[in-house]
């Protein structure tokens, strides 16, 4: 073996806008949500934000760029369901129309997410989820464990649902949470504000401006294992350039 | 809806106010929350309800009585922490003062819960939780599995935190949820209403009046395993009177 | 035994070789394991069985056919790891060489599994796992919940590892387990026998002959939701032919 | 905040007999298991060890003493079931007679465990479990997270069941595992040896002699949070002497 890693701890002792050992979680920035003119079931008109989802995507693009430059791992959370809905379960009881079928156009990354080639880039990953919380019944924790993450920066849509429940999933697993407010939105101002309030209740330091998070990432020393992956193509500690 | 399937199913095909095979979860009706005059950290002034927490307790007492008469299992959820806070984790990052230490007065059942001898009664159980969601890192699911539960009726405090996150924990495990609105409260009207809205988003049929839930329980045939426990003192199927 | 209870129950009251509401789990029947002449890291020479893995595959093909005819859902468990090993974690500490990289030939279904088009068939699913137990940090439970499964028939390789730990994962979640002995194998007779003994310890009724399981499936009335999927292409209860 | 903690990582880079940041898990050293003359259902004659369970207890007493001196947190795992067996579930299908009822003599710590006052000591905890694996549906992970543990030293009975499945639970959550061989036993030599082989398969470095583990603990710098608890009575980082 031979990892050269920073001192970490599950419950970081910092109010830094990016926490101490962060990963970036981008949740559900999928076409279906952006397609507000259509009947797209995940459509999120994002009236909570001037400029709507396109503006949220711009902020998120900037944050993704900062995370890449700072050697922070990125997880692209993707809600999708099997075409026959065999994993849909209690969502049949929910208020949303049927949405996010695998292989449909609606589940692909929104075109407003103007980022190079996510997922095939080093230390970036797609994680499929079946419910709102990116932690539940997914393999997310394996990735966070590999990179010794203690803080998750959560962005995406919607503020009150997937971002909020992913923040809660992180909180109850003893991760610190950061939510850059400009990088999330909801169909109404009320739901956006309520979502933020609920997240703030969990961890008051979680709410941050995207500028502060980016500023903090610019001074972050970087995740040593991300650098190892960028150099060798693998987290395998025995791999050498 | 309109499932055409065999009588066994995790996701019940009913809008009945009590679901099809319900258990009652009473969450955090603990002294600490009722002690609004003191500095008690879980104190919940419950201004969202006329009559405050005492009124919530009265409604809940009625519901507990109905559940007992209807042969419905009852789980008394109890948040408590080890005295040295070794299980407190990310709650150090949260907005609440330190609360609910094991063996403190604050964790005992509130005196306004005027019910006979909970827990020592047949088919009633106490489940300790360390976070908000009664499902997470607890043995609750074993009890629900034993009684073949597909619906959880969630009551207690606070609407936006423990009741809401327990409802979410149930939802993402494919249980139907019912929340009798009079049986939950929050420190402010805003938090109470927001908590209900979030629960309603998960499952629109979840919000019910306590009168409707009690009315439905009066016509429920009862849980056969609860009856077996009342007759024999054990769920063991080989036990006979 | 002799439960006197309603027809819904997690813990079936039957010693039937196929349980009461079964799903078939086929675990890790992947090319890498069959390639015993190579250095393939999952190679499993299966000296525990006359005819080796090809014989195991023949028995499993028969069982898959019987499950399809009986309207039983089938889950194809597939161990695979991200190419950069970001989900590999404590497997770096294990005794196996690095194995089962996504998109490598080794992770595809072994050619000896001479079955029509798995996965694209109705009520059949692939579930990716990162460790041995098909339940852990996967979405398997959603599928089992949808089909109201109470018994899992576990087959595949290796007896002592993935089959055994998947049986254990099922056991601790209150499912009944069946393992048709001819449908699993291990590199040595000792490991095969020890794996079976450990499974038997969990649930003595779990060990069955494949002939008995197939015989029981021939008399099974079938899973109503599987039939619905075969008729309509979806589990959605509102879908009609 | 202000924890002074050692650099940790989930997947430690060491073959040290005690790992890098260890906790000691003592599993099921309960009266019921020691009572081999009786019909006690957990009775474990431990013919796998010269001197039987009393000898296992002596070794474990020494290890507990070493862990205390080394400022290592200790978790006392305790299998127990509700008196009406409401959490017993699939154990009704298992090969063991009904065992370990709460408040029965059989669940108390075996008298051969000649240690001062466990649990009331600083940084020692009791964790109740309902199945074999001490991780599953318990709050163990909260404690391990608090102390930034990356290695679990697992002892107790039986080698093939609770010790083995707890080791597996740790492995699939990316903890390193150590099992001091003299500190575990099984009813037969075969089951003991098979249990050890299965553990070794998971992590070849896991099997250690108790002497080597104790020797390593004597040189361990100690867990900083354990020291904080010994000094202040709480893990709360704001607490000062």
Architecture (CATH level 2) name of chain A: 3-Layer(aba) Sandwich
Q: Would you count the extended β strands of chain A for me? A: 7
CATH superfamily descriptor of chain A: Isochorismatase-like
Largest interface: A-B, 33 and 34 residues
Helix-strand pattern of chain A = EHHEEHEHEEHEHH
β-sheet strand percentage of chain A: 5-15%
Q: Estimate nothing, just give the exact number of structural domains of chain A.
A: 1
The level 1 CATH classification of chain A is Alpha Beta
- What is the name of the CATH topology of chain A? Rossmann fold
- Please outline the major beta sheet of chain A: 7 strands, parallel
Oligomeric description of these chains: homotetramer
Helix percent band of chain A: 25-40%
The backbone outline of chain A, from C-alpha atoms, is: globular
User: Tally the helices of chain A: what do you get?
Assistant: 7
Rg of chain A, alpha carbons: 17 Å
- Low-confidence regions of chain A: 1-10
Counting helices, strands and paired strands, the structural category of chain A is alpha/beta
Tell me the distance between the termini of chain A.
15 Å
pLDDT averaged over residues of chain A: 88
